[in-house]
Amino acid sequence: MAKVTVSLPQGTRDFDAVTIKKRNYIFDNIKNVFVLYGFQPLETPAMENLETLMGKYGDEGDKLIFKILNNGLENPAKQQKAKEDFLQVLEGKNIKGITERALRYDLTIPFARYVAMNQGQLTFPFKRYQVQPVWRADRPQKGRYREFWQCDADVVGSLSLLNEVDFINIYATAFRELKVDVEIRINNRKLLAALAELCGGVHKMIDITIAIDKIDKIGLEKVKEELKQRGLNEEEVYFIEKYLSVAGTNEEKLEQASALLADTETGKKGLEELGYINEFIKKNTNISNLVFDFTLARGLNYYTGSIFEVKATNVSMGSIGGGGRYDDLTGLFGVPNLPGVGISFGVDRIFDVMEELKLFPGNLEKGSDVLCFNLGKDAAEEAFKLMQHLRTAGVSCEIFHEEAKFDKQFKYAEKKHITFAIIIGANELTEGAFILKNLSTGVQQTFANSAIMEAISEIKKPS
Questions:
Q1: What is the pTM of this model?
Q2: Domain ends where: 326, 356, 386?
Q3: Residues in contact with 123: Cβ distance below 8 Å, sequence separation at least 6, in sequence order
Q4: What's 378's domain CATH number?
Q5: In a shared domain, residues 296 and 222
Q6: Phi/psi at 288 (5° precision)
Q7: Could you tell me if residue 325 is inside a domain?
Q8: Within 10 A of 393 (CB to CB), how many other CB atoms are there?
Q9: Which of 177, 192, 262, 368 could cross-link with 258 by S-S, CB 3.0 to 4.6 Å?
Q10: For the chain, what is the domain count?
Q11: How many distinct helices (H) and strands (E) make up the chain?
């Protein structure tokens, strides 16, 4: 029989028990912060209708959407037509006979679709958080996967900049709980719109933001080259370079940007919004890691105001969080005038950062609290009775699956990071007792079966 080679699709991963516990540690911390700020959970399907997703992420994003082939393509009568249609799909076209659905690219567009469909039943401002996987046909690399989890929070139905202030606080609180030092970067898309107005017109905004969004990856000189390739002249590129070179404190950056952009109404409005947020944070919080970053563009087309990006300060990693304001996202689905703002945590990247910096608590690797040794039929039955008391009291426990030598059972407990062992030998069976051994310290005590609650108290003692 030929050897079968098994593998995973590129950009996907299996997750073992320890990894899942660590990820849940991240999820639980972030969810707790969301709940503190008044957000409620929501889940949407893994797939959406293709028309729901296409055209919402710009040309670059649309190319990364995983399309799902329709069923029934094996029908002989339709095979030739299917082949012709499939060739068109490979050229980037959307043919309903071949594909009508796609895996979700992010959680924001499905959220907007949900709001548009359920607006009559929602209480506005509507605040939801969502923790689910998303899929992108991106080139896999460190910190970038084709299947990954997002952890989002959004407010829809409010223009108040207090929402932006709340989201900055959510980022600061969540990363403080996770002990990850971060920089919370903020910009405003109105400044980029003003930049486009001054460099050839608003129709140039997408070209400008796509190029600027790559500055961390390719550097300023390559961005300038790309801007020229996109049709901007030397004077316009020089003006954008001055904008990208703004530096100093947040206040100094505002002043320099104002000198460049305040002559446009759009630029003036964006600067006012940033100034309000900066002043509010300074007066009313102890947050010191908010940084104005005028190179921040976030290439997604639906952002219209404040935009965020979070980066860990002690590791080489891309953004681990981001988001922004989208004042007419639901208008894409026929429900205009519902402004919103949201943020996302890049959980997979946060995981990689915490792993590199060794920030996960040690007890996440722990297995069951107790392993009951299997020393024969009668001992196993007695151990099983004890386990029912332990489980009722909230103590996790298991029994070794077969009668075996002590050494084998001790090694099993060690590999699974189990803290305690319950041992019932011949003497203990006769006396109606059991030995409780702390496998970390080697200390063991003998308890009567009737004193199981004493043993449980010992097991539950803080280590």
A1: 0.85
A2: 356
A3: none
A4: 3.40.50.800
A5: yes
A6: -120, 0
A7: yes
A8: 14
A9: 262
A10: 2
A11: 17, 16
What six digits make up the tokens of 407?
Answer: 């050494």
Residue 65 near residue 137 (C-beta atoms within 8 A): yes
Q: Quick one: 248 and 386 in the same domain?
A: no
Q: What is the pLDDT along the chain (463 residues), one digit of tens a residue?
A: 567 789 998 999 999 999 999 999 999 999 999 999 999 999 999 999 999 999 888 788 888 999 887 765 555 555 556 666 666 666 656 666 677 899 999 998 999 999 999 999 999 999 999 999 999 998 888 767 899 999 999 999 999 999 999 999 999 999 999 999 999 999 999 999 999 999 988 888 888 888 888 888 888 889 889 888 888 899 988 999 999 999 999 999 999 999 999 889 999 999 999 999 999 999 999 999 999 999 998 766 678 999 999 999 988 888 899 999 988 878 889 898 899 999 999 998 899 999 999 999 988 888 999 999 999 999 999 999 999 999 999 999 999 999 999 999 999 999 999 999 999 999 999 999 999 999 999 999 999 999 999 999 999 988 6
Is 215 in the same domain as 162? yes
- In 3-state terms the chain splits into helix, strand, coil percentages (rounded to 5) of 45, 20, 35
Strand 433-438 to strand 126-135: parallel, antiparallel, or no bridges (unpaired)?
unpaired
Strands 182-188 and 290-292: parallel
State whether 125 and 247 are in the same domain: yes
Residue 416 shares a structural domain with residue 323? no
Omega before 133 cis (within 30°)?
no
**In this structure, are 413 and 266 located in the same domain?**
no
Token pair for 380: 């196993």
Residue 300 structural domain: 17-356
Q: Is residue 293 part of a domain?
A: yes
Q: Which of 131, 23, 13 is nearest to 364 (CA)?
A: 23
Name beta bridge partners: 99: 69
Q: Which residue has the tokens 């490979």?
A: 90
Please state, in angstroms and rounded to a whole number, the distance separating the CA atoms of residues 109 and 50: 12
> Which residue is listed with tokens 């600067």?
271
Backbone angles phi, psi at 221, to 5 degrees: -60, -40
Question: How many whole angstroms separate alpha carbon 192 and alpha carbon 212?
Answer: 10
- Name residues whose C-beta falls within 8 Å of residue 354's C-beta, 6 or more positions apart in sequence: 22, 26, 178, 180, 360
Distance separating alpha carbons of residues 107 and 43, to the nearest angstrom: 9
Q: Are residues 248 and 328 in the same domain?
A: yes
In a domain, 100, yes or no: yes
Q: Examine the domain organization and report whether 232 and 182 are in the same domain.
A: yes
> Can you state the angle between helices 215-229 and 234-244, rounded to 10 degrees?
160
